[in-house]
């Protein structure tokens, strides 16, 4: 029998709109519009939308895992429990990376350790190849540890060599995170042959349409005299950019921003690309 709701019946079930901090300047790029008197005012959300499932995509070495780890440390240090599903890097290597992030961010690592739960799918063929088994394990961990955030790095690692199943697997994970009321970060590996400005290349066409929003990380090698003049960087340097490609839960900045990965391994968003270029040609 088909189910339906009167719209007013959904009021008590509708999630509150507020931000979940990432520890980066992206927190100021999501916003909502509120009416104050006779005018509308833009107010930063302070993070990605609560209960959003965000796709973080980009070609290799653009900073996707750095962003995910920074988000995990930020949330754990704030006292919120995070379930981190590592599909690419074994859990002991993830420990080292998170400890370094915590030190660089000035976070209390004992607090971070206490609040991050790890599922190692990198060293488990069953969890990596059987999405049902992984979801059952995640459900157990969420119930037992009472997490509020889930990171999967990477979701594309769950459908290696079977991209025809990408949409089906992402849909299962998306529905699961919604059912268990988790704010989700899904890291996606984009194929380098695809246009860098597109988000669809991660996991095939239409995957980006399943999630609530996509953040695209990109990099450009400075390799011509034109690049040197335009970006003010020497030959061989790398210019990194980040863009919120879409988010259906709230308004967001649509500009492309320049960012760097600092010596201590943190994402530091600098300025809009247009401002950055203008400052270099003055």
UniProtKB/TrEMBL annotation:
Limits of the KaiC domain: 31-282
Sample GO molecular function, one term: ATP binding
Pfam family, one: ATPase
PROSITE patterns from the UniProt entry: KAIC
Entry protein name: KaiC domain-containing protein
């Amino acid at each position: 029998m088909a189910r339906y709701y009167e719209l007013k019946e959904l009021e008590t079930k509708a999630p509150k709109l507020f931000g979940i901090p990432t520890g980066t300047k992206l927190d100021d790029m999501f916003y909502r519009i509120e009416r104050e008197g006779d005018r509308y005012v833009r107010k930063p959300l302070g993070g990605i939308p609560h209960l959003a499932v965000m796709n973080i995509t980009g070609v290799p070495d653009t900073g996707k895992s750095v962003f995910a780890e920074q988000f995990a440390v930020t949330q754990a240090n704030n006292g919120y429990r995070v379930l981190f599903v590592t599909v690419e890097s074994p859990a002991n290597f993830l420990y080292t990376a998170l400890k370094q992030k915590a030190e660089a961010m000035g976070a209390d690592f004992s607090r971070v350790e206490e609040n991050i739960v790890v599922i190692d799918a990198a060293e488990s063929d069953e969890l990596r190849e059987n999405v049902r088994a992984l979801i059952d394990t995640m459900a157990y961990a969420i119930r037992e540890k009472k997490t509020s955030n889930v990171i999967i790095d990477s979701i594309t690692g769950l459908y290696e060599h079977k991209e025809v199943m990408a949409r089906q697997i992402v849909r299962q994970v998306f529905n699961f995170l919604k059912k268990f009321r988790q704010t989700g970060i899904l890291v996606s590996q984009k194929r380098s042959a695809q246009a860098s400005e597109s988000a669809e290349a991660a996991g095939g066409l239409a995957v980006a349409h399943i999630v609530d929003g996509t953040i695209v990380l990109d990099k450009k090698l400075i390799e011509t005299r034109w690049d040197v003049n335009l970006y003010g960087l020497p030959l061989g340097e790398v210019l990194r950019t980040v863009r919120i490609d879409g988010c259906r839960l709230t308004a967001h900045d649509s500009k492309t921003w320049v960012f760097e990965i600092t010596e201590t391994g943190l994402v530091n968003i600098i300025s809009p690309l247009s401002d950055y270029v203008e400052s270099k040609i003055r």
